[in-house]
Amino acid sequence: MVALDEALAKARARFVADNPASRAAHEQAAAHLPGGNTRTTLFYPPFPLTMAHAEGCRLTDLDGHTYVDLLGDYTAGLYGHDNPVIRKVVEAALDRGWNYGAHGRDEALFAAVLCERFPSLELVRFTNSGTEANLLALATATTFTGRDTVLVFTGAYHGSVLSFGDKDFPLNVPHRFVVAEYNDLADTAAVLDRHADDLAAILVEPMLGSGGCLPADPAFLAYLRRRADETGALLVFDEVMTSRMSGGGLQELLGVTPDLTTLGKYTGGGMTFGAFGGRADMMAMYDPRRPGYVAHAGTFNNNVLSMAAGYAGLTELFPPPAARELFERGERLRARLNAIAEGTPMTWTGMGSMLTVHFGTGEITTPRDLRPAPEYRELFHLEMLARGFHLARRGMIALSLPVTDRECDEFCAAVADFASHSG
Length: 423
What we know:
By secondary structure, this protein is α/β, with parallel strands linked by helices. It is built from 13 helices and 18 strands. The strands form 5 sheets. It has a 7-stranded mixed beta sheet with strand order 4-14-13-12-9-5-8, sandwiched between helices.
């Protein structure tokens, strides 16, 4: 522990010395933003870096340091920072004017692509974020079923007001939530049995994203599908992050089709976007041509930038073959990193282009297997920044399309160097 403390103190001192402009920017921001921050996930002590420029898969901070961006804005930045296709369609949309307050043609084209690609989507509606999409999915489930209870899982993050870590989150919306252990069939069965009569929805990530990139056991998801059918609850897949795993998301890859799916992040071309959709009989409640329909408004649901960028992204940049290629690149990277980590306390979990490093020993399949190691995580983060790689403080990586095998090779070399000096 003494060696760890010394290494961490040295890394912190180097970070402060190397980043005076970022430190000054943070102090200036703190005058008007709580803690200089308006997106908690991006903060880390002693102060977060402030970026000045980005292109491709590279970021440059205020002090002139350039980093390979392995975080990909927590999966939202799939297309990189300056993709010419996205730029072209956004500029064309701006040339046609914005804030229509009316229908536009792109929303129908975009919706058609989503429904063609994702097995569960018969009808879809748009929102402004993944958080909003999950809120609307739960509202759809409770309205359609006439029930109140929602089953969620430990470690899950479904948005800024739907967070289920290891303690109660005070900003969560006041649904009647019951919580089961992710990937634990026995615990989930017990919770389901207790609440079957009033269960409106089972909300689950097919792989925990913020919860550590822990993939769901296919048998676990198949069990949820069966119990949803038995109880009359709606199975909701939060694929805000995992939709990138194949042309039709993890639901297509694993062959488990939910009743409702939520999307967001990259799906809108990297713009502000979310979507929820599923079975036509449920989504028809939002059809304003029907008597007794349920209204769902949102000034920017069909904003021209997200509609144009989302359609172009899926059709031109991320068709199913591109999704398969990115998935395979991530699989190769994680295998290499785990080979490097053999004999050290490091383990990499994940699937495809999403992965997270953990520090500790033992198999990791559920959130209860995670070992808190904040000092190791901080040291790893600071050492990777010093070597020119930008990732989340919690150790999460989300590859973007501009990241090639070359950047993966360079990162593996950096991790190997870290392991040889920190083991």
